[in-house]
Amino acid sequence: MTEKIRCALYSIMGIALGIVLLLPGGHVQASEKKTIYNSSYVSFSPDGKAWTTCAGDRNYKWYDENETTTVYTGIKSSLEALQEGEHYYRSSRRGEVPIGAWQVVLRGAQCIHNAYGAPPGWHGISFGMKKCHRYYYSGWKPLCADCGEPIEWWNIYMSREAAETIQYMDLGSEENPVTYYYLCPFCSNLEQGVTFSPHRCKTISNNQYRITYDANAESCHGFMEESYHMYDNAVLYEGKEVTPVTHLVVNNYSRIGYVFTGWNTRPDGSGISYGDRAEIYNLSTADYKDRTTWTEEDHVIAMLPQPFVTVAQSKFDDLTIRLDLTKEWDALDNGSQLNTAGLVVRTEFAKEHPEAVAAFLKEYAASTQYVNENVSEAAQLVAQYDIVEAAVAEKAIPYCNIVCITGEEMKSSVQGYFQVLFDQNPQSVGGALPGDDFYYLGQ
Fold it and tell me: Of 145, 195, 399, 412, which residue is 20 to 30 A from 309 by alpha carbon distance?
């Protein structure tokens, strides 16, 4: 008899959001570029690190904030159609950024601002610090040719003719940023004085999707964390290096009376099937659900820790214990022990509070001795703290091998245990055995 049980295995962020590619011929050749460095409407500060537009020009003109006044530079967008398994994200962009258009954002610019945070002699510029309230050119913003968003949020005050001479905005670098300033042409009040920030422009990345594992049966034991995978097994995600995960996680669920037989994309098992730790590739580019299947059998072999063995025996009369893993491990006689639990303390805390750690270990040893010598009383405490029922605890405690091992004996035991795991699969202990500083010896 086969029972199909739901088990979720789905992906998020799988929808293709976009791609950014450079189009041949999309940008002009270097010799044809119109930049702030070859525009006749741009001038620089005495130290050459700040620039301005239409300096001293009092023959200003206002421009309406609409399409009729927008200046298009002729630089085309380098974005192509979206590709499957990719999306856009924002990344910082400095240096030379192509301008698709200049747009008026402030029609009636007036001498009512200040940038007085700049110290006297800022970039060698002489400026006033008193507003005259007279008018000057409208404020413009450059729109990125690639993403269409403003390259900078500060206004550039200039004529339409000046805008037509600038196709590229230089944002400099972190070490050498670029600064823009504007002085009122009538009173030299420092109306604008800003250092440009990086432009948050669209960039392409492969999608990352998430797989969630769900037992979908109330009687199941175990827990499984989500796993994350890259579309096309890409090694970069939003500009950062990643290691693509190419397999499903090993199943960690157990269910008494059933054998796990794999994952499936549908609750009834009629979808796509995957084996345990199956290799996957581009599982999905959209939200995705996957389930698993369990098979009910007359004879089932299960490996369970106490007290769950005793819990299972209370539900199945014919369930028997055939192997005690602790005894089987000891029979190897390799100097190690089967360790299934441990106490962890931060090194900083242990060094600052050795008395507290010593007192805790002493009380822990006493607690261990009490449980083993007073099974019935200990079982009542287990029930009081909602671990398992008292009757189950009383039966299980003698089989739990509850011990408190410290010092050199603990180190030798755990080192041998880790060595056995490492010899089978180095990744089971993180790829390398821990050093001596991993163990607390009470020193």
Answer: 412
